[in-house]
Amino acid sequence: MLVSKLIIMNRFPFFIACCFVFLFNCKEATKTTFSDITISTENNNSVEVTIPKASGNDLIVNAINSEIQKVVIYALHVGDPDNVSSKSIEESITSFNKDYADFIKDFPESQQIWEAQIDGELLYESPELTSIAITSYVNTGGAHGTLNISFLNFDSTTGNKITNENIFTNIDAFKKIAQIHFNKAIKEKATHFETDEFELPANIAYTEDGIVLLYNTYEIAPYSTGVIEFAIPFKDVNSYLVFNGAY
Q1: Which of 57, 89, 127, 161 is 20 to 30 Å apart from 25, CA to CA?
Q2: Residue 125 bridge partners (DSSP)
Q3: Contact 205, 131 (CB under 8 A)
């Protein structure tokens, strides 16, 4: 009986070690990873799409990939923005090409060439939060095309999208610091704004340089001003963030 107990006791540490190895391997196996993918369709001559695709735990990556897909579909939609019907990026590409073909039929003398370029980038990744940028340039006529940048923030543990409001523990305190950096950014652009009614932009994301705020063209200024973008170091605002950034 004593010998049996000793054998069990000697095997117990080995059993514990095996459990740790198993759990570690499971964690590694389900870690979310990203790779760039290019999406196109047959007879597509107008649209280029290269975006990050998440792989790993199905529940997490399906949520992330779905949100990325929504942004791309919306960017490729021509017409009423409240009437988006495409269910996939491929369907949107086909629709965009068809709309251009219909345009040429209606205006055969037009020299206008439609185009759409969409690129995605992984900006930041931690065990808590993942930030992704989707940049789209779409030209369907007019004096110039439309450039738009969308930031997406996700809970790394669930894949759920995080709204800007849920990034901050004290949004009012953050806004005061953001306005200082905003004033510096517009000064460097030699642009003047009345900032008494300062508002945060629609696009806020984490990067290795800190919290990035980006105002798209026309969001607060005329087209000629272009995109206004600036970063706030984490050390200046970590106390106001739900997800602390490394610095």
Answers
A1: 161
A2: 130
A3: yes
- Alpha carbon 131 to chain centroid, angstroms: 5
pTM, full prediction: 0.83
CA distance 186 to 189: 5
Q: Which two tokens stand for residue 68?
A: 């990325």
- Residues 138-165: pLDDT tens digits? 999 877 789 999 999 999 999 999 999 9
Residue given tokens 């919306």 in the structure block: 74
Nearest to 164 by CA among 240, 100, 92: 240
Task: Cite the beta strand spans of 156-227 per DSSP E.
Answer: 203-207, 210-215
Cβ partners under 8 Å of residue 140, min gap 6: 78, 99, 100, 103, 114
Tokens linked to 155: 């809970």
Cα–Cα distance measured from residue 136 to residue 49, given in angstroms and rounded to the nearest whole number = 9
